[in-house]
Design brief:
binds thiamine diphosphate; 12% strand; single chain; alpha/beta; 792 residues; 6-stranded parallel beta sheet; 5-stranded parallel beta sheet
Length: 792
């Protein structure tokens, strides 16, 4: 605990901060328990108590303590600060404090600053039709719900990037600190540029317990914890104890030291040109869990134990003796000293809160859409691949996208609101062109052979998908734009983080005071069909199955078949708002199908017939060959050339899908085709052989209500893979051109004996393929050299 001869707080200020803390604690307990009698103007009776008692007390008094002290330093040093509640289950604390500072009533005038407002504030908490129990999107000042633990620090760093004046105060639960994402997030300090970025002030809340267990960090020796945090590059300041007056003074002096240190680091970097990696301060607050709550209940210790985690006192209807305990607890905060007879916070306490948008509940950074500025986007058509005829060989679709992203980075360099995050794969994913204009931001040491590392840069790479996701989310939530590029298989690591972000978007879309933010864009390159060199572990296209579980109004999935389509799709994604866009694209040289003009039209429609590949013009097709994804499109077109040559009388229609959500009924997804439009493409009764990028089941899931669903036969990844040739990957999963043609023959009895003969020859081809690759270690020349030709 820092000591100094002159106390940081005058006795009067200390007393007022203590009273403010008591007020927040009182409001927190009120939210958990009271349906009426909010000012305790009369003795508590059973009818004053809510019937369902919900909420988390244990973390709440500590967070109230932190918030009150942050208010002091904000006001004293005129800080631009937001509050991230890692243990977001301490929702009552954040709600109480935003109410005390006045922002809550400004956003929700019905929750007024008087007795009637207090009653509603209490009643609505964790109540049907009211507000959730966490630091939910409904809470002013929150960018982090904290329902799923682990992401507070990464969100905070994302918020601090490119916000040089901002300090993000981030409360980290000591339980939360055990999660993988949080444990590695301490390293974020190797990526924060003290010149152009703001600061993150972690406050490790060492209240000792989780739900039913002690926490690891609270049960290792003090010096081991200190070494751990120092080892992560932090300069920890310890505030430890339980006696309020001493703790107020210790916290105030710790915060003064932390703010001074942050400002000194920034001056050194910004004015004096210091370039060495700074040791940013952090605070370790060791205080009792459930501090100031009931000490013992039913003969058991509560305060300072895991038993204080949720509601320490049970429903007095079942435990009548708890009613008096609750009243004692509430009265211990001396509400009559805190609120006047009308229920307003006493003026001398209200004066402690910062003013206007300096209040953490009103800081615009925590409602990022307010600050969102459009990106300057180059004309994506300038980056087009020249497609003189369908099938010309490309260089790799993401390699065409690279220069477009490079120019996005360049054009927005001055307004510093676009970043690309990735776990060490930006080059591998074909986006190396970015490094023609920017670098990877990196504050740790560099060596002569390093590439593209700099103190400041638009690309941020750490081998932690969790950090990339969390940083990007924090960056977007505070009003900026970005992209996460990742191997397709490993994006699953953030399945759960995506869930939480999608939930946040869904809820905030319905809150009129929350402004829309930029979409979260995933570019999944290095996909399943071209991970032949890495093998089975790297082959998993299931992220999109997961994504489509979420609300249709939030999720979009694109599988551009070639580079021009990828450019068109990415331009659209970077302009869009409040979505999660998933774009799956290849990085290896592959045929190009559409001119830029055709690509723009095709992507705008999202799905369409490719007339140049079809021969059913003016009539009904015998079969629809549908494809979605770059490799399935290639195999489909190769299958069409075989059909044209071997069974020329067949009328084949080729339908390509870019926008996966087109397949869902229009009643289910805003992009969905009407049934009439779907039938016009896929027919009402003809076989559809559908070659799909990912797991086949997804297509059935999306189309099961369509007229022709019974005739849709999907080929996709069926969990067959290994290190093999690119074409063999498709063969192993029956997605190759030979299987597709055999499928058509199987579905069309009218192909008769000639069809059977073709089928036999293709079966022989598959044997030949296997023998060839086993002997030569590469695909047969006719596969490698295959090129689209419209005429057989
Ligand atoms: C990822 C995740 N796992 C489990 C839980 C369930 N859970 C809710 S609170 C909690 C304990 C949290 O302890 P800590 O972070 O120390 O918070 P505090 O003690 O301040 O309440 C757990 C395990 C969760 N919310 N998120």
């Amino acid at each position: 605990m820092p000591t100094s001869d002159t106390p940081t707080l005058t006795p009067d200020l200390l007393a007022r901060i203590d009273a403010y803390w008591r007020a927040a604690n009182y409001l927190s307990v009120g939210q958990m328990y009271l349906a009426d009698n909010p000012l305790l103007k009369r003795p508590l009776v059973l009818a004053d108590i809510k019937r369902m008692l919900l909420g988390h007390w244990g973390t709440t008094p500590g967070q109230n303590f932190i918030y009150a002290h942050l208010n002091r330093v904000i006001a004293q040093y005129d800080l631009d600060m937001i509050y991230v509640s890692g243990p977001g289950h301490g929702g009552p604390a954040v709600v109480a404090n935003t109410y005390l500072e006045g922002t809550y009533s400004e956003v929700y005038p019905d929750i007024s600053q008087d007795e009637a407002g207090l009653r509603k504030l209490f009643l609505q908490f964790s109540f049907p039709g009211g507000i959730p129990s966490h630091a939910s999107p409904e809470t002013p000042g929150s960018i982090h719900e904290g329902g799923e633990l682990g992401y507070s620090l990464s969100h905070s760093f994302g918020a601090a990037f490119d916000n040089p004046a901002l300090i993000v105060a981030c409360v980290v639960g000591d339980g939360e600190a055990e999660t993988g994402p949080l444990a590695t997030a301490w390293h974020s300090n190797k990526f924060l540029d003290p010149v152009h970025d703001g600061a993150v002030l972690p406050i490790l809340h060492l209240n000792g317990y989780k739900i039913a267990n002690p926490t690891i960090l609270a049960r290792i020796p003090h010096d081991e914890l200190e070494q751990l945090l120092c080892g992560y590059g932090w300069q920890p300041i310890f505030v430890e104890g339980h006696e309020p007056a001493a703790m107020h003074e210790a916290m105030a002096s710790a915060l003064d030291a932390a703010v001074a240190r942050i400002q000194a680091i920034q001056v050194q970097a910004r004015k004096e040109g210091t370039t060495s990696r700074p040791r940013w301060p952090m605070i370790v607050l060791r205080s009792p869990k459930g501090w100031t709550g009931p000490k013992r209940v039913d003969g058991q210790q509560i305060e300072g134990t895991f038993r204080s985690h949720q509601v320490p006192l049970s429903d007095p209807a079942a435990h009548p003796e708890h009613l008096a305990l609750l009243e004692d607890w509430l009265r211990s905060y001396r509400p009559q000293e805190l609120f006047d007879a009308q229920g307003r916070l006493m003026r001398e306490l209200a004066d402690l809160a910062p003013r206007g948008s300096r209040r953490m509940g009103a800081n615009p950074h925590a409602n990022g859409g307010l600050l969102l500025r459009d990106l300057h986007l180059p004309d994506f058509q300038r980056f087009a691949v020249d497609v003189s005829a369908p099938g010309v060989r490309g260089v790799g679709d993401t390699r065409v996208l690279g220069p477009f992203l490079r120019d996005v980075a360049k054009l927005n360099d001055a307004q510093r609101n676009f970043r690309v995050f990735g776990p060490d794969e930006t080059i591998s994913n074909g986006l190396a062109a970015l490094f023609e204009t920017t670098d990877r931001q990196w504050q740790a040491a560099t060596e002569p052979n390093d590439e593209f590392l700099a103190l400041s840069g638009r690309v941020v790479e750490m081998l932690s998908e969790h950090q990339c996701e969390g940083w990007l989310e924090g960056y977007l939530l505070t009003g900026r734009h970005g992209l996460f590029n990742c191997y397709e298989a490993f994006i699953h690591i953030v399945d759960s983080m995506f869930n939480q972000h999608a939930k946040w978007l869904k809820v905030t879309a319905r809150l009129p005071w929350r402004r829309p933010i930029a979409s979260l864009n995933y570019l999944l390159a290095s996909h399943v069909w071209r991970q032949d060199h890495n093998g089975f572990t790297h082959q998993d296209p299931g992220f999109i199955d997961h994504v489509v579980n979420k609300k249709a109004e939030v999720v979009r999935v694109y599988l551009p078949p070639d580079a021009n389509c990828l450019l068109s799709v990415m331009d659209h994604c970077l302009r869009s708002r409040h979505y999660v866009n998933v774009v799956v694209a290849g990085k290896h040289p592959a045929p190009q199908w559409l001119t830029m003009e055709a690509a723009v039209k095709h992507c705008a429609a999202g799905v369409g017939i490719w007339p140049w590949a079809s021969n059913d013009q003016g009539g009904d097709p015998d079969v629809v060959m549908a494809c979605c994804g770059d490799v399935p499109t290639l195999e489909t077109l190769a299958a069409v050339t075989i059909l044209r040559a071997q069974l020329p009388e067949l009328k084949v229609r080729v339908v390509n899908v870019v926008d996966l959500m087109k397949l869902q009924p229009s009643s289910e997804h805003p992009h969905g085709l009407t049934d009439a439009a779907f039938d016009a493409l896929f027919t009402k009764d003809r076989p559809v052989v559908f070659a799909f990028h990912a797991y086949p089941w997804l297509i059935h899931r999306l189309t099961y209500r369509r007229t022709n669903h019974d005739n849709i036969h999907v080929r996709g990844y069926k969990e067959e893979g290994t290190i093999t040739t690119p074409f063999d990957m498709t063969v192993l999963n029956d997605l190759d051109r030979f299987h597709l043609v055999m499928d058509v023959i199987h579905r069309l009895p009218q192909t008769g004996p000639r069809g059977l003969e073709v089928k036999r020859r293709l079966e022989a081809k598959l044997v030949e393929h296997r023998q060839y690759i086993n002997r030569h270690g590469q695909d047969m020349p006719e596969i490698r050299d295959w090129a689209w030709s419209a005429s057989p």
